[in-house]
Structures are given as structure tokens and as C-alpha cells.
Write a structure and sequence with these properties.
single chain, 195 residues, 6-stranded mixed sheet, peptidoglycan binding, Amidase/PGRP_sf, PGRP, Peptidoglycan_recognition, innate immunity
Length: 195
């Protein structure tokens, strides 16, 4: 039997999709702000207006991904510097970031308003998968980490059990989270065509 590149890609996509659809009880490995070397925020982030959060928004960072904790921590520090120094925000914009090392990096954290999608900052948890997903999807470790994080949020009362999952492009004019990742998340539980 001949296996083409296209067949291999289909198998990989199905595998990753199945991981997300499982009921997840595993806690994600969350790297705290102090562990990744976060700067102190300029001001404290306000609490979400709606809690538990009724929405989860998926983003990508563009640029290169990261497959080691050291590189992912460096990238998260760079995002924080860009958000604070260039964009003038009080802190990193996302609630959490996920690397292809399988770790979750704490941004603003649970229950806090992000700066990731203006109309949804007050009512969503923003999760950014580090990397550019216009032409490829994140690896299985990153996808599983996102699934574990969302499951933990539901279990801990931080995300509504009937939350809606959206790609950033559904809430703001952008290509984020990239065409390949956006196609993938349409198969994930709770993805919603409309807000």
C-alpha cells in the first residue's frame, strides 16, 4: 500500500481531531508567570464581566512556533514586551498561550479580561497557540494542551459548560487563527458558527 503525503496529513488531522473530542480529565501543565519570567503588569487586569466565561477564543501568534519550554518561554516574554511596549497594553493580551512543547503558559490567567479581541475581552478566555497556522495545524501535544486547559476551566467554574468556541476571525476582521487552524477548530466540541 502506498501512503501519500496527503493521506498522511489526513491521518494526522483525524488523529488530532479525535484527541480534542475525548473527554479530558488530565490537568494541563501550566507554566506560571513567575516561571516564564513575566514582567509585572502596568496595571491590574479587571475581572471578566461574565463569569464563568461564555466564550473561548482561539488565536495564533504568527511567526515561528516553539517545541521546547526554553524557546516557548522566550517567545511568551517577547509577546509580553511587544504588547506592553509597542501596543501600549497593560500586560500580555492573552489569558493563556500554548506551545508545541505541550505546555500552557499563563498570561492574564483565569477570570481576567484580556486584550485579544475588543468586543469579546470582557466575556471570553483568549487562548493563543504559538506559531503560524495559515498552512499547517498545531502538533498533537499543543492541541491536547488546549483541550486539557478548556476542560480544566469548565471543571473549575471558569468557563461555562455550554461555552461557545470561536476563532478570532469570527469576532474581529483578521486572518487569525490562520486558515488551517480555523478549519481544524470547526471540528472541535462547542465550535459555534455564530457568536
Amino acid at each position: 500500500m502506498y501512503i501519500t503525503k496527503r493521506t498522511t496529513l489526513i491521518f494526522a488531522t483525524v488523529y488530532v481531531t479525535l484527541i480534542v473530542q475525548e473527554t479530558v480529565a488530565t490537568s494541563p501543565n501550566i507554566i506560571s508567570r513567575s516561571e516564564w519570567g513575566a514582567r509585572a503588569p502596568k496595571s491590574r487586569a479587571p475581572n471578566l464581566k461574565l463569569k464563568p466565561a461564555p466564550y473561548v477564543l482561539i488565536h495564533h501568534s504568527t511567526g515561528s512556533g516553539c517545541e521546547t519550554q526554553a524557546l516557548c518561554q522566550l517567545k511568551v516574554r517577547q509577546f509580553q514586551n511587544e504588547h506592553m511596549n509597542t501596543k501600549g497594553w497593560s500586560d500580555i493580551g492573552y489569558n493563556f498561550l500554548v506551545g508545541e512543547d505541550g505546555n500552557v503558559y499563563e498570561g492574564r490567567g483565569w477570570g481576567k479580561q484580556g486584550a485579544h479581541s475588543i468586543p469579546f475581552n470582557k466575556k471570553s478566555i483568549g487562548i493563543c497557540i504559538i506559531g503560524d497556522y495559515r498552512k499547517r495545524t498545531p502538533n498533537a501535544m499543543a492541541v491536547q494542551a488546549v483541550a486539557n486547559l478548556i476542560a480544566q476551566g469548565v471543571q473549575n467554574g471558569e468557563i461555562k459548560s455550554d461555552y461557545k468556541l470561536l476563532g478570532h476571525r469570527q469576532t474581529w476582521p483578521t486572518i487569525c487563527p490562520g486558515d488551517s487552524l480555523y478549519t481544524m477548530i470547526k471540528s472541535w466540541p462547542h465550535w459555534s458558527e455564530r457568536e
